[in-house]
Amino acid sequence: MPISSLTTGCIQSIMTGTEVEKPVLQILGTKKIASGNDSERYRILISDGKYLNSFAMLATQLNHLQQEDKLKENTIVRLERYTTSMVNKTDKADKRVMIILELTILNDGREVGQKIGNPQTFNPADAASAPAAAAASAPKPTMNNNNYAKNNNVSMNQSINSGHLISPIASLSPYNNKWVIKVRCMSKSQIRTWNNAKGEGKLFSMDFCDQSGEIRATAFRDDVDKYYDLIKQDGVYLISKCTLKAANKQFNHLKNDYEMTFGSETVIQPCEDDNDDSIPTVQYNFTPINRIAEMEDKSMVDICGVVKEIGEIVHITSKTTNKEFKKRELIVVDQSEASIALQIWGDDAVNLMVTFNPLLLLKELDSANSMELKVLALELDPFINSIQIFLSVIKFEDARTGGAGGGSMSTEWLSFFDVRARNLGNGDRPDYFQTKATIQMIRGQNAIYKACSSPDCNKKVVDEGESFRCEKCNITSHTYKARFLVNMSISDWTSNRWVTCFNDLVEQMLGKSASEVDAEIQASAGQEGNENEPFSKMFFQSYVFKLRCKVETYGDSQRNKFTAVAATPLNYKEYNKHLIGDLSRLTGIGKN
DNA sequence: CCCCCCCC
User: Fold this and answer.
1) What's the CA gap between A406 and A397, in Å, rounded?
2) d(CA A292, CA A579)
3) Is A407 among the domain residues?
4) Any idea where the Replication protein A 70 kDa DNA-binding subunit B/D first OB fold domain is (predicted)?
């Protein structure tokens, strides 16, 4: 590879505001800028052979280059994209810094082996006296047609801009409050309230991006009302006068050392053109679903998949905080032919259906061909809105162990033998596992109970003959709601257990509602010994049971109580895949 | 100024 020649003298043009397209420069050094936390930023000493520029920074998305040691001394690079920004220093003149957004390495530092030319530190004061010389020696600098750079020169709305140029997110810091950023909203949270020792209030936060990076912003209290409806996902905004502070990396995974807070001074102006392609849309880095199990707990992943199953909205009351939650679970599959349960909480779970087309999505169940999935996910229009949800950065709970908090499809396969051998059910929290099992026996007696007729209450009522009293709702009604609560003995390949199966699962397995069965039983009242008959359809059916077990104490005896939380009809293709996986793990034969 | 992330 011949050594590339540098764009001699271009630093003068760049640092005085003239844009040079794709300049070729030599790196003479890199330096990590001290920062208060584990996020890094690198300053680069860069040369055009004539001038040195030490006010160049690497956009954080390029940090990997430094970490991979690709920016060694003497390396020659071509800047594919960069931007400059005026940094205001109160005691001195404004200073221009250069932020490198994208570069190509032309020659390795060792290959070049030396500093090219005898570059001198560029001094803007000198430039004023001799501007022509450098421009003449540069190989035809042309105006940079890069959109981002162009935007820097667009005359912005004076009301917020006060004549300042658009700054890249990467240049924001707590020491600089004279800036306007032009950003796209990548995501917006729900409104959340808090109530603690320090007081109460509400907030929402949103993540913004531009070409240089990303940053989180949070609005509190009155600002929530002011801005919540204004900020829309994918919208482009001009924003100024926020407070910056160090980002708390524990909760904020964006690539930025800082995060910002809206205040009374803050000005936000929506841009007319949300399609402005100078401001990037959300960038994804997809992880195949079958790799998630290998990742560290609580890792952040982007996934690209389609919905295989859509759960109902479930209302939950937290046992620790007594707070009400709404949840919906989706099963998502991707090209890796793996699936994972995706939990969607709060209003997101409710609003999901609005843009959802369950028919189209469910169609994938039958033609689960990995090649087709990709095309459908990316190109079928009705998918796009819903798919966006999965494309977003999604936090999966412990997908590996299937223990507390695991998604249903990531639940560990364990036999009843394993469960006993591992002493499961003895912890503070219940244990979850799944096994393929066949229903051997069903206890028909008391398989249906009379539940409170209020829609959200399933509590067993006190039967007062003519009326039914719910002690939870404190109401008495003349009607009740029949619900299943079935005990059945199920057997896997190692052993059998009595498990409790709640209403929805039994209705699903039986294809009949508890009310229908209740009516049948009433109609044939008096016939003894036929209690199991209504359930005969379920006998000897096999399912993949997802089970919860927890040791409970009854008087002075303890018993491991098993409850079915899901029963999926056997999909032999999938189950065989699991068995083949076990075989290859056990024997080392097969997969790599 | 939040920082909770729930449940079966």
Assistant:
1) 6
2) 20
3) no
4) 168-271
d(Cα A131, Cα A134) in Å, to the nearest integer?
6
CA–C1' nearest nucleotide, residue A407: B8
Question: Which residue has tokens 């004023």?
Answer: A128
- Give the pTM: 0.49
Protein CA at A392 to nucleotide C1' at B2, angstroms: 21
Quote the domain boundaries for residue A188.
Answer: 169-270
For residue A578, give the H/E element and its range. helix A572-587
> Strand B: which nucleotides have any atom within 7 A of a protein Cβ?
1-8
Both tokens assigned to A482: 């029949």
Domain count of chain A?
4
A383: left (phi over 0), alpha (psi -120 to 50) or beta: alpha
Tens-place pLDDT, residues A401-437: 333 233 334 578 899 998 998 889 988 778 889 999 9
Whole-number distance in Å between A434 CA and B4 C1': 30
**A375 burial level (CB within 10 Å; 0-12, 13-18, 19+):** exposed
Q: For B3, which residue's CA is nearest its C1'?
A: A251
Place of tokens 């011949």: A2
CATH number for the domain spanning A355: value is: 2.40.50.140
